[in-house]
Amino acid sequence: MTNTDTVTPDESSPVPPPGRARHKIWRPSAQSPIVTAALALLLGLAVGAIIIIVTTPAILDAWRSIFHSWSGIGHAIKVTFDNVGAAYRAIFTGSIVDPASLWHSITTGHGWDNTMTPISETLTYTSPLLIASIGVGIAFQTGIFNIGANGQAVLGGIAGGVIGSMLHMPMVFHLPLTMIAGIIGGMIAGAVPGVLKAYTGAHEVITTIMFNYVIYSFLLFVVLSTPFQQPGQQNDIGRMMDTTAQLPPLFGTSSGLRVNYGIFVAAAVVVFAWWFLDRSSMGFDFRVTGANPTAARASGINAKRVIVIVFLISGGLSGLAGMVQVASTTHFIDGTFLIGNAGIGFTAITVALLGRNRPMGIMWSSLLFAALGVGGRSMQAATGIPLDLATVIQSVIVIFVATPVLVKEIYRLRGSSESTLQLANKGWNS
Amino acid sequence: MRLELRGITKRFGGFTANDQISITVEPGQIHSLLGENGAGKSTLMNVLFGLLTPDEGEILIDGEPTKFANSGEAVRRGIGMVHQHFMLVPVFSVAENVVLGFEPTKSLNRVDYKRANEEIRRVSKEFNLEVDPDAIVENLPVGLQQRVEILKALSHDAELLILDEPTAVLTPQEIDALMAIVQSLADAGKSILFITHKLKEVKAIADVITVIRQGKVVGTAQPTDSEAELASMMVGRNVELTVEKSAFSPGSDVFQIRDLVVRDDRGLIAVNKVSLDVRSGEIVALAGVQGNGQTELVEAIVGMRAVESGTITLNGRDVTRDSPRKALDNGIGHIPEDRQRDGLVMSMSVADNLILNTPRRAPFARHGTRNLGAVKENAEKLVKDFDIRTTSVEATADSLSGGNQQKVIVARELSRPLQFLVASQPTRGLDVGSIEYVHRQIVNHRNDGNGALVVSSELDEVIALGDRIAVMFEGRISGIVDPTTSREDIGLLMTGTGTSSE
């Protein structure tokens, strides 16, 4: 072929100036997930402050008094700041560190256990939440909405509880075996909706929600059945795990700090998830499937296989989370294990969303959620403001993160909201 | 009603679906809007029906500028629409469907079914549209369901009726009945906008024809104009294309299709006993107005659509029922018709898109772990070789222009060892420079002694690329001709009326 025709050099879209891509990342815009999350946190705290103001009798009384005399306004403002400040201070000192206690420990060299307790508690709560959230996040990235993480975690906890308490062997075998049992328990719970979706098209949102209830009932059955029920108990309490199957505290049992080797399990899961999503061929298939199912099909990716495997991985991680939860805190399961407020599998959905389904993002968001939960308890103890306020703050953060348009409007940020919106909505339209 | 559209423009992001479209429909007139799938007809109707807001332009009803915030306002102004996909509630009765949203009520806001039934009987009688008001819609044949849609529009006193591809789902007998109904409605003074890509229907029924192509009005025609003329207006001829090709020296058969039958998403036969051969060193161009089964044919070849009967053979091996993965491994390259849907993952990097269907092949991965260095190296080489304009290989595909997105696909497909290439509308929406580039790549592939099937509704592209031209019409090959054949003759084959030279 003779080369008579040449490509027109002036393309319809000219090459953008170099450096544009990097500039885009760091510009404070609604497109940066970190900026959005930070601004959403501020909004969450603001909304929380409003709720504290309108529900605390002391503050309302102070404001009411200004109807009698305007001179009371300074007092009213002071009362408001005192109460809101006390609440947020309690959340901070209860979940991270109390500066006064820290200073005391530094100057005297004593009381480190006490000083480290808040951060130890936060990390203890983070580990299982982080693992479950990674499981949910991997499913999200594949376009699968796994609402069954809680049930999968429960089944993982049951499996871990059974293997950990009813088999006896040295720790080098027992602890890994208990972990594997937890993973397999979660995988079994995940496989059912996975196979149903792959081979019958049953929507995973329905099947996973329903399967949660099956597993909750199974939990009651297990903790009330003679072989597993704690001997001498009539209640719904399972056997205590052997110490060889427990995740030991980092600083020994005598320190009183609950932070334990579970954080290394969680860290390993983060590294695995990063490798899996970013570096493995299968993770690539998963991401292609999640981002564009028709292109995935055209590229020869077997959708059925991907769906089943993603449920095995997501379920397995949720199961591991359940096992870590038991093996690092109570060391036994009972009939209320992960039910209600303690349902890490449900919190994991919001944590994954907040972390944009990416391992590092999920790590930060699960730390934040664990800190708010732990700090909320301190706040309740110190100020009488109910723990639910922490849940409100968490929820508000998620609402703002899920609707970047709102954050963008409130802070008048530049940048198109469309792409972020799509990101946040990934997984809902599978 | 006299309807006038003035300079309607509708954009979706960077894509202009309607570009300065002006149309006038007179009372009692059947105005046909003719254009290929994707030409922008449905967008225009959605603008007119208040479902989309135009970016520019205005709608005039009886000379008065009008804006519709939603379809309810359009209905109140006397515009009725029969959608391509019926908007009926299948489990409701005919009467319930017709009054839905405008239910006559008696005391306590209860629906007055008696009045609803009377209303339907009155309208059916007036326009000769017989339907049982108590029948459940899902039990009715498609033709009657459509009649319910028409009844619904008429019962809201529609003066202008929009029919969006009304014959797409009908049998020939039902089409005849529909045509009679449409004619009688026009005789009764209703204005009709009849949207279709089928030339025969247009000639049979239209008073005036407006042809739309790539979102623009390309001209008006009379029903007396020949089908070939209409066809060439639809597919256009405004770009002069020249591709230098080496002498045609076909080898043995690489690819064979025998009596292939494929169904579309609705379960109707889209490809009807098609047989086609492609030899090595040959480009067979598949021409035809879009929507005549080309899409389904290509999907069957690349394993994305089940084959009902017939065989597909590649180098003597039966590949009829191979999965997309096997089709890829067999060395069938695919440039898909809808590149953003089937060919790219827009949120992923150029580098990842360049190995999208070969991520596990050496050297891009080993033992299930990706070798990102090799992926990047491959991307940098292809970006250079295929002149893909991008800020970096890590930039996402959606940051590229349409032409460069297509180059990514072309580079990916042509850089891996191929036995056969299927390119579907390979230059749709591209600028002239990119068109020439893509054409040159396909011709290079052919000059290297490979076979290719190029599906295109652009007549110029077909003539420029094809060593032989097969024309598809209503699921069949209506003829296989030489590229020296006149445009008029190819146009006739596109309408199913011409004769084949082979």
Main attributes of the structure:
heterodimer, A: 430 residues, 18 helices, 70% helix, disordered C terminus, B: 502 residues, Rossmann fold, six-stranded mixed sheet, 22 strands
Give the SSE map.
The complex is a heterodimer of chains A (430) and B (502).
Chain A: H1 20-26, H2 33-55, H3 57-64, H4 72-95, H5 99-108, H6 112-141, H7 149-166, H8 171-200, H9 204-224, H10 262-279, H11 281-291, H12 293-298, H13 303-330, H14 344-354, H15 359-383, H16 388-402, H17 404-411, H18 418-425
Chain B: E1 3-12, E2 15-25, E3 30-35, H1 41-48, E4 56-61, E5 64-66, H2 71-76, E6 79-82, H3 94-99, H4 113-127, H5 142-155, E7 160-164, H6 172-187, E8 191-196, H7 199-205, E9 208-213, E10 216-221, H8 227-235, E11 253-263, E12 269-279, E13 283-287, H9 294-301, E14 307-314, E15 317-318, H10 324-329, E16 332-335, H11 339-343, H12 350-353, E17 365-366, E18 369-370, H13 372-385, H14 402-414, E19 420-424, H15 432-447, E20 451-455, H16 459-465, E21 468-473, E22 476-481, H17 487-494
Parallel strand pairs in B: 3-8, 3-9, 6-7, 7-8, 13-20, 13-21, 16-19, 19-20
Antiparallel strand pairs in B: 1-2, 1-4, 4-5, 9-10, 11-12, 11-14, 14-15, 17-18, 21-22
Helix pairs in contact in B: 8-17, 14-15
Widest beta sheet: strand line-up of chain B: 6-7-8-3-9-10
Low-confidence segments of chain B: none
How does the overall form of chain B come out from the CA principal axes?
elongated
* Average pLDDT of chain A: 86
- Overall number of structural domains of chain B: 3
Q: What is the CATH top level name of the largest domain in chain B?
A: Alpha Beta
**CATH homologous superfamily label of the largest domain in chain B:** P-loop containing nucleotide triphosphate hydrolases
Number of helices of chain A: 18
The fraction of residues in strands of chain A falls at under 5%
